[in-house]
Design goal:
With 409 residues, the protein is of the alpha+beta class. It contains 15 helices and seven strands.
Length: 409
């Protein structure tokens, strides 16, 4: 399909959504230029409109709506040859930024029109002009130290999750504690900020707190202090007064709060709980033995992680935040795989792989501390991720990981 035809495919839904005239033309110009320079947006057989991820369409629209803030023309941007996400990131900064903008700010362009979208998109633009994160009108007030850590939050976080991450690290919490807080309800709810800061400070000052209890403690406090119980009455569903509105975290010990939470949720008792799990994707696991003359063979394997406990262990082993993907996996929005290497009798975690379940494309690969894999093996896999792990059709049997068989470290 020609560029003109595929641009028309994008124009039609935008016309139906009554996109304001000032935004319609920049968006079509943008999508046209982006398509010419980014071949991964080509239309696939049987698809409607773009075959790129749906998220990109909304991002394009939002970029066009902020066209009056563009610093440069779309036509002066050149593709770097990366993934769709990397290309979008490059272009957004080309249009709006003079200074570096943290990766998590890209999520601002996913939001539908409204106060939150306006607030976060303007924050993106202001950061690109050199503003400090803590000076912006964002839902969590940050100190200088908190801003330092928030700017280094994992790139897949939303804006609020990144702010919570920086808040926890700035109060003395470690990386895993910060990821747990970001993955909890506090990563999507910014109300009662001063109270929750006292809770976050309590967690940061409790290094012996079990990681799988952090989210449970937050849920316990929310349910008892703020969220009333839904009850069916003769007049319909009503919300009763919260059972413990005067609850405060100050003055409590870790033992006392853990006792309260375990009484509230008995499933947390014991250390052998697997948390929650989900069904497998149906893609077969991978194993490949690389023969090495005069040395021990390298036994490579890739296994799918199917419960929150294994995600937590993977994150601990590689010092990254893969545990925050647990709910996405449960909702079937993502699948997570662990790349491992066994030499002799010893097995080592090498990298974590995220795969998009709808089209079985590898989204990202991260080694220890969120670094990109450093060996030739993973590097070549990353270069081929867009084509080698894709199904040939909706009902096709999932491919194995044969892409790995051609690469060695």
């Amino acid at each position: 399909m020609s560029s003109r035809e595929s641009t028309w495919q994008l124009k039609k839904p935008l016309t139906r959504s009554k996109l304001i005239p000032i935004a319609a033309r920049p968006l079509c110009d943008y999508s046209h230029a982006f398509e010419r320079k980014q071949d991964c947006l080509s239309l696939g057989q049987g698809s409607v409109g773009w075959s790129a991820p749906v998220f990109l369409i909304n991002r394009l629209k939002n970029l066009a709506l902020r066209q009056k803030f563009w610093l440069k023309s779309v036509e002066t941007w050149f593709s770097q040859g990366g993934s769709v996400r990397e290309e979008f990131r490059s272009l957004a900064r080309h249009l709006f930024a003079i200074y570096a903008v943290p990766g998590f700010m890209d999520s601002a362009w996913d939001l539908s029109a409204g106060p939150q979208a306006f607030q976060q998109q303007v924050a993106f633009i202001q950061l690109g002009r050199g503003a400090k994160l803590r000076s912006l009108n964002l839902p969590v007030v940050l100190t200088k130290k908190m801003e330092h850590y928030a700017r280094r939050a994992p790139e897949h976080f939303t804006v609020l999750q990144a702010l919570r991450y920086g808040e926890m690290r700035g109060l003395g919490g470690d990386h895993m504690q910060a990821c747990e807080v970001a993955a909890s309800r506090l990563g999507s709810d910014a109300t009662n900020a001063s109270f929750w800061r006292s809770v976050i400070r309590f967690i940061a000052n409790s290094p012996k707190m079990p990681m799988n209890h952090i989210s449970a403690i937050i849920d316990f406090i929310q349910s008892n202090k703020f969220a009333g119980e839904e009850v069916q009455t003769a007049d319909g569903i009503q919300i009763r007064r919260p059972p413990w509105p005067e609850f405060e975290i100050a003055g409590r010990t870790l033992s006392s709060i853990l006792r309260l939470v375990r009484e509230w949720n008995p499933e947390l008792n014991g250390n052998n709980s697997k948390g929650f799990s989900w069904e497998g994707s149906g893609t077969r696991a991978f194993r490949y033995v690389e023969k090495c003359p005069d040395e021990q063979d390298l036994d490579w394997s890739i296994i799918e992680l199917l419960n929150s406990t294994t995600l937590y262990a993977e994150g601990r082993g590689l010092s990254h935040c893969v545990y925050t993907y647990a709910n996405k996996c449960r909702r079937r929005e993502s699948t997570i795989w662990s790349l491992r290497l066994r030499v002799g009798g010893e097995e080592k975690r090498m990298a974590t792989i995220e795969v998009e379940p709808s089209n079985q494309v590898i989204v990202q690969i991260r080694a220890k501390r969120n670094r990109k894999p450093g060996c030739k093996f993973a590097h070549n896999m990353s270069r081929n991720k867009s084509s080698e792990f894709r199904n040939s059709g909706r009902n096709a049997k999932p491919r194995t990981w044969r892409v790995f068989q051609n690469f060695g470290c």
